[in-house]
């Protein structure tokens, strides 16, 4: 077995365990996470940001996104294709949506912009700002490109139960600047 194969298998096992923790947290979720996210975003009023349309058992950022939309541009990610970075299309709470890849809704009309803050979904996070995503590398490629242009704040949004002691990370994995959960805000 090669080192890459070993890491792929280790990441797959870490994702499986994290998905189980996330589902349990989703099924028993407590209120407060969206309010905590709104509080953090209030310190960045008017800064272009992107959230995401929650799928499956992801924690829901939509209330905080709707509040932020009253003050500036808010977008959602649109997958362009395998191996490509994400693009972000303007979103409003009342805007028309269509089905996008992986079951996430996207705006009916593409209106792309570059956000300076990304609210990032995840499968697991660690206490150093490490993030385990779904494995497609979309956010890693996207953050690398945005950060090459200007400072870009990556905020992981997750349940407390999604924290892992250690994650199998690679040099290409982009770190989070912050994680917001239903009980706390972690800054890295």
UniProtKB/TrEMBL annotation:
It is an enzyme of class 6 (ligase). Its cofactor is Mg(2+). It comes from the Bacteria. SUPFAM superfamilies: NagB/RpiA/CoA transferase-like. One of its GO terms (molecular function) is 5-formyltetrahydrofolate cyclo-ligase activity. Belongs to the 5-formyltetrahydrofolate cyclo-ligase family. This is 5-formyltetrahydrofolate cyclo-ligase. It comes from Ruegeria halocynthiae. The lineage of its organism: Bacteria, Pseudomonadati, Pseudomonadota, Alphaproteobacteria, Rhodobacterales.
């Amino acid at each position: 077995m090669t080192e890459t194969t070993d890491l792929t298998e280790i990441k797959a096992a870490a994702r499986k365990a994290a998905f189980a923790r996330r589902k349990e947290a989703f099924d028993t979720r407590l209120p407060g996470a969206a309010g905590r996210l709104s509080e953090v975003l209030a310190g960045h009023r008017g800064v272009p940001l992107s959230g995401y349309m929650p799928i499956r058992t992801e924690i829901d950022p939509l209330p905080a996104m709707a509040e932020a939309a009253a003050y500036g541009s808010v977008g959602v990610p649109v997958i362009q294709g395998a191996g490509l970075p994400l693009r972000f299309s303007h979103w409003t709470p009342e805007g028309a949506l269509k089905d996008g890849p992986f079951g996430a809704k996207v705006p009916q009309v593409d209106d792309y912009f570059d956000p300076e803050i990304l609210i990032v979904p995840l499968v697991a996070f660690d206490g150093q700002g490490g993030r385990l995503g779904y494995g497609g590398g979309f956010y890693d490629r996207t953050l690398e490109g945005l950060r090459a242009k200007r400072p870009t704040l990556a905020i992981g949004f997750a349940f407390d139960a999604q924290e892992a002691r250690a994650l199998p990370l690679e040099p290409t994995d982009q770190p989070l600047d912050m994680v917001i959960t239903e009980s706390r805000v972690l800054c890295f």
